[in-house]
Amino acid sequence: MTWIKACGGGIGLIRIHNCIWIRAANAANQPQGPNQPQGPNQPQGPTNRKDSQALTRARLRSAARAEFARRGIAAASIDRISESAGFSRGAFYANYAGKHDLLLELLGEHQRREIEAWQALLDTPGTLEDVLPALRERFDAFARSAEDALFATELQIEALRNPDFAPRYRAFTQELEARTLRLGEAFIARAGTSRVSATVLGKALQSFSPQLIAEARLGIAPTDQTAGERLVAIITELLGTGRASAAGEENPA
């Protein structure tokens, strides 16, 4: 028996990424399924079910981000997202409970990437002052993405409205809190001092970041400071290394 890959239609045993794997009789060949090692001239399918699912979810997230950006979250239907990704509606529900669950994973993926980038910068040798310019630039670039600010607001509103979605949103925020706590610890280790605990500093990062982004996007922030400059000023003030802190120490009341 062998496996033949047919794209664009037909009925077969396994559908993977809009292609059909059809089992055909061939006594001269060894069994070769879509997850089996294949010869150099054979089309390569996913290595296993887990890899296939990961690829499917990645394609759905990519299609969803494009649809959300193009049509807005409310107008982007699951059918459109599935079609854009090259899958059926059933494939969507095989991976996500609904649109907001996909949105939650999409936002979490981006936020984890940003936090890890900050963590990597803080782990490099040098002083806190050495790394602040790079942190400012990184946050300013993050703030320019209007999509994430909209995603975060939409998810919070949905969690308040939908008791079925609320537990998943809480789990998301708890994971974010754990990551920002580690970021707070890294800041304190880098600065060598702090006016507040790592927990408070992490919570400040989690709370101030979306607010500063929203103010920058709405044009209600001070025009002489970027979102990154404002966030760094808050962080250094909480650490006790900012200009206002230094001035206060030099001129105590």
Tally of DSSP β-strands: 3
- Count of alpha and pi helical runs: 10
Write down the secondary-structure element order.
EEEHHHHHHHHHH
CATH first level of the largest domain: Mainly Alpha
Rg for CA atoms: 24 Å
Q: Based on the coordinates given, report the CATH architecture of the largest domain.
A: Orthogonal Bundle
And the CATH topology of the largest domain? Answer: Tetracycline Repressor, domain 2
Helix content: 55-70%
Given as residue ranges, the uncertain stretches (5+ residues, pLDDT < 50) are 1-6, 8-18, 20-44, 245-249
Basic shape? elongated
Task: Provide the number of structural domains.
Answer: 3
- The overall pLDDT average reads 80
Structure class: mainly alpha
List keywords for this structure.
3-stranded antiparallel β-sheet, mainly alpha, 6% strand, 253 residues, 64% helix, Arc Repressor Mutant, subunit A, 10 helices, Tetracycline Repressor, domain 2
Task: Please write out the topology.
Blueprint: E1 2-7, E2 14-16, E3 19-24, H1 49-71, H2 78-85, H3 89-95, H4 99-122, H5 128-143, H6 146-161, H7 166-191, H8 198-218, H9 227-239, H10 243-250
Antiparallel strand pairs: 1-3, 2-3
Helix pairs in contact: 1-2, 1-4, 4-5, 4-6, 4-7, 5-9, 6-7, 7-8, 8-9
Provide a concise account of the structure shown.
The protein is mainly α. Helix content is 64%, strand content 6%.
Description:
- With 253 residues, the chain is mainly alpha-helical.
- It has three domains: 2-46, no CATH class; 48-96, Arc Repressor Mutant, subunit A; 103-250, Tetracycline Repressor, domain 2.
- Helices cover 64% and strands 6% of the residues.
- The protein is built from ten helices and three strands, in the order βββαααααααααα.
- A hairpin with a 2-residue loop joins strand 2 and strand 3 (19-24).
